[in-house]
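Example record used in the benchmark description.
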Amino acid sequence: MTRSARFVLFLLMAGTMMASAQTPDAAAASGSGGADNPVAQVRKDMSWEYGPFVNGGTGLGNRDNFQFLSAGVQVGKPLTPVLRAGIFSGQFEYGVNIMPLWQAYTPAPHEQTFFYTGGNCPAGEECSFEGPDGGGTYHGVSITPMILRWNFLTKSRRFQPWFQGAGGLIYTTHKFPPDLLVPHNTPGGGGTSVWNFSPQGGGGFHYFIRPKRSIDVGVNGVHISSASLGDRNPGVNASIQVQVGYTFWK
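Model output (structure tokens):
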């Protein structure tokens, strides 16, 4: 993880913990909700939330030359009242999002060294060869059918922090990530997959600009893998992606 990515995650986590650190008495003092306290209002009503978002980010490690962009709509609903657990008090929420736009920007096709075992490679050894590696812009769609979010109890009237874990599915019009451009029976493998999974986790916050309207910011660490649906599964071990949205509460 780059130094800048670690710094962003540190600030996000520190802000979340500071906003959620309160005693039950402080929570009670925030009132039952209303125009002057939109955070308490949606917490008390266990309101549905829905709205559009844009998501962008970059790969890390050996994928630091990958960039990502997506856009869609997210829906969520708290499933519990406030559960007391000290500074970790809050509500459990379930959500889903759909991204009709999902794109990955990768280096242009080029020659690359590939490593393999088996085939004409001596037993117990790893062999290599030079081959054409795919690349360019990849287009697709994505759905995240399981977003498990914890909304921290906060005394703020406008700032609602949260932490989440999620799992999604990505379909691309070409096999992703780019890999060796040869038939599948060639030593070293033949390709990846048009289907990939995207387990992820991170944190963020809603900032209420008025009752039942908020601007939302989140940072997620996202892993992309085909679970070996293709001949090869190089995947994207890690990426940092920032999500910005606008939420309606009902």
